[in-house]
Amino acid sequence: MLPEFNLLAQKYKSELFDKVIPFWLNHSKDEEFGGYFTCLDREGKVFDTDKFIWLQAREVWMFSSLYNNVEQKPEWLEMALHGAEFLKKHAKDADGNWYFSLTRQGKPLIQPYNIFSDCFACMAFGQLYKATGNKEHAEIAKQTFQNILNKSDNPKGKYNKAFPGTRPLKGFSLPMILCNLSLEIEHLLEPELVKQTIETVIHEVMEVFYDENSGLIFENVNPDGSFSDSFEGRLLNPGHAIEAMWFIMDLADRLKNKDLMEKAVQILLKTLKYGWDEKYGGIFYFLDIKGFPPQQLEWDQKLWWVHIETLISLIKAYHLTGNRECLQWFEKVHNYTWSHFADPEYAEWFGYLNRQGEVLLPLKGGKWKGCFHVPRGLYQVWKTLEKLD
């Protein structure tokens, strides 16, 4: 059984501030060249110095967010500014597109093919502006947001590998992230643009990518929203769909839309049941809607972010609707997550487990894992549990 909500809230809060945030403060700052190291082993030692824009920007966002929403600690703001200065100097091309990765010194390594670099940079500077009031930070966020909207029909632009016209698919990831991003930088946008963006992304997520027959969300669909019987078209990413549902719940709460809220909760539960590994526990990374072998060889791995985002969605759903099934699932996922991903000896959490739940890689940060999902998740669950007490 779960402990009382206030004790559970304290567990998440303590993990965040006693272990996870100190890990990044103590180990990730590059004092010589700016920005952050994210390739950190179990103890926090650096094992690679390349800098990935997703993770640089997410760390700026995380420390700005803590400064704005928890306590105005000077070391948190200084940490955020440290990363932001590096990004400002090195991370964009001449057209304002954000590179995917840089050398330690800030030289471009991989072209700006990935629109999510832009999305996380936008989040970072939008949140940082709240902390600093610096108009330059606001301008970077606004220009980047406009760039994202301009590129939304062809996010990879000239770096798109797909041959044009043969199988044009649209992906779930961008409308999903725009659900969150539109609220993240609402303070910088015209109300009408926020309203239009919210309406568009709700329609995309909850109607275009949602499949009524299965009750699940596809990762890719044809441009008209129809099913594509291909590797990409059959692909399910349970973690993505579940994370998107807490973004949608936040929007439904804001719009006072009970029908939207209920639909989000039902998709959350349906996806979780479909994606749960009955044999070993945990949530599969990828699945094929027809039960065929997914093309991703890592399909049966258990990943940190999938489980943390699920905890956020479940506790929000319980808080906002009182759905007891969500609380029961929260207990189940909480027990799996804390017993498998939390490191009993060192700070921060493991990221990658095999299907059986054994640690595959003992790293605490890498090319994809940084100062984001664990601290954001601990914060979100902590604050939601406090409301339940």
Descriptive overview:
With 389 residues, this protein is mainly alpha-helical. It is 55% helix and 8% strand. The protein has 13 helices and 14 strands. It has helices spanning 5-27, 53-69, 74-90, 115-132, 135-151, 173-184, 191-208, 231-234, 238-255, 258-275, 304-321, 324-340, 373-388, and strands at 39-40, 46-48, 51-52, 101-102, 108-110, 170-171, 210-211, 216-217, 220-221, 235-236, 287-288, 302-303, 352-353, 359-361. The protein has a three-stranded antiparallel beta sheet. The chain has a three-stranded antiparallel beta sheet with strand order 12-13-14. Helix 6 (173-184) packs parallel to helix 9 (238-255), helix 9 (238-255) runs antiparallel to helix 10 (258-275) and helix 10 (258-275) packs antiparallel against helix 11. It is globular and about 50 Å long. The model has no long low-confidence stretch (mean pLDDT 97).
